[in-house]
Amino acid sequence: MISIKTFTFNPFQENTYLAFNENKQCWIIDPGMFTDSENAEILNFIQHHNLIPQSIINTHAHLDHIVGVHFLQKEFGIPFYIHELDEPTLQYGPIAASMYGLGTINMPISYEFFNDNKMQLGDSQIEIIHTPGHAPGHVILFSKSEKWLINGDMLFAGSIGRTDLPGSNPNDMLKSLKEKIITLPDDTKVYCGHGIATSIKNEKASNPYLKNL
To answer: How many domains does the chain have?
Structure first.
């Protein structure tokens, strides 16, 4: 059984997730820590709960989701995974930081590409589903057995992700939402890249952006 801890970090109020099992193995998903105090917050939680970080897993490589990767790689020496189509998104990070007035950021030390459509966290199998739209290499992390979804910036409570950013595509976004997200079971809990958690059922019933899909 996987537990999920949510943190909200950086000026973009981005949600960073720790997914961990009873054996203390954990993934750090979309690490957005931007300040020393935010680094300390996630590190203190990991240490207090005796967690053993295995990997950094990203739904996509926009600046607000990757700014904490460097700190974690230095601290734990663990691999950082993105989809291969999001390599240009990652490389755009320093430009984005300058545009948003964030100054110079520490980029990831190294990165690897997903080599399968699923990964194991201990005994739990997590599906890695490619969902382009918000970013060309966006993925979602789906646990079929435990009925949860970490969906990055695809679906929000009452909204969907932006498609006016470099590399984003509104047609791909709608296709991914229609074919890969709202087709998931209604009782799937959805952890979003920003804002509160929701469910597939709630969003199908009330999200105005899904009405005509």
So the answer is: 1
Which residue range(s) make up the domain with 56?
3-210
Query: What is the value of pTM for the model shown?
Result: 0.97
E strand spans, the chain: 3-9, 14-20, 25-29, 52-57, 80-82, 112-113, 118-121, 124-130, 139-143, 148-150, 155-156, 159-160, 189-191, 198-199
Q: What is the CATH number of the domain that holds 92?
A: 3.60.15.10
Specify the pairing of strand 112-113 against strand 80-82: parallel
What pLDDT tens digit does each residue of the chain (213 aa) get?
999 999 999 999 999 999 999 999 999 999 999 999 999 999 999 999 999 999 999 999 999 999 999 999 999 999 999 999 999 999 999 999 999 999 999 999 999 999 999 999 999 999 999 999 999 999 999 999 999 999 999 999 999 999 999 999 999 999 999 999 999 999 999 999 999 999 999 999 999 999 988
